[in-house]
Amino acid sequence: MNEDYMREALDLARRGAGRTSPNPAVGAVLVRDGRVVGRGYHTWAGMKHAEIVALEEARENARGATLYVTLEPCSHHGRTGPCTEALIAAGVSRVVAALADPNPLVSGVGLRRLREAGVKVETPGEYAQEAERLNEAFVHFMRKGVPLVMLKAAVTLDGKISAPDDNQGWITSEVARAHVQQLRYHSDAILTGIGTVLADDCLLTDRTGLERARPLLRIVLDSLLRLPPTARMVTSCKSDLLVVTTSAASPERYRVLENLGVRIITLDGPGGRTNLRRLVEYLALEKYLSLMIEAGGKVNWAALETEIVDKIFFYYAPKILGGLHSLPVVGGVGRRRRSDAIVFRDVALHNISKDEFAVEGWLVKAG
Asked: What pTM does this model have?
């Protein structure tokens, strides 16, 4: 295998990242006689897959060519026809796939169909991890059936997210905040609590200016529907605001917000709170592949305690607030014993700016 061709396929796939949900980002390169004859990457759901774009560019040169592709070609009829049949019909002689289809119900079916048609198939393992990381949310959704949930926070070195009095200004730098926008761009939905909205009158929008597969869904947990009709999230709503409430909420407030274009669902949870697990299930039914949480300590704790969180991404600024009244990144009841601490695996450090870093890690869940 020529590594340069698979590397190019991965780079092509990245061009579609953020524009393919609920589909994966895929890149494809067709090579014949040591020359690239076709390239393609997937963009919008319902549009041509990467393999088809590459075949159309290659035309008759596809016969006898090798396809380098970042994900197993599909073998089923969806919005578009199966890529496997198009590759067979075009006379492609060899397919090198970085990653098998993560859907356990169809994994390997496309590759098997190619082999049955006489196409040589290779699945070298050296690019599997990178290909999986490229489609992290898609892979998680296919394997687990629910969105990938990431808890993001900007914290001081002593783990604080808010001061007790004047909270003007930012904890992290402009560089870190720009990096957050990239995380938002690659998320299908973003969630916060009503306390954060009332305190900050935040927008929670994707401000990258890049094309998206669909608008970033903004979600507010608001058990009593305290969200003001004048809040910026409401006045900027364009069918992209979902409020999760409980049956204790005022019917009058419900009607007011709904008339302003806010989508509201009632999900009763324990203790008069909203039910986070049911929210994640709701998002799965709506084909949202990823959810990013940007909230206060209480919501952060609820998300961790209920184990809806899959991973964290914490930005650390070179600052210390100290004191007993500065708010920690995670509040709530917490764990009473060190032996019961919430544990993370595959922890990675990322350099964000000269004096800032981020910690990424996956939650170790029971069972």
From this structure: 0.94
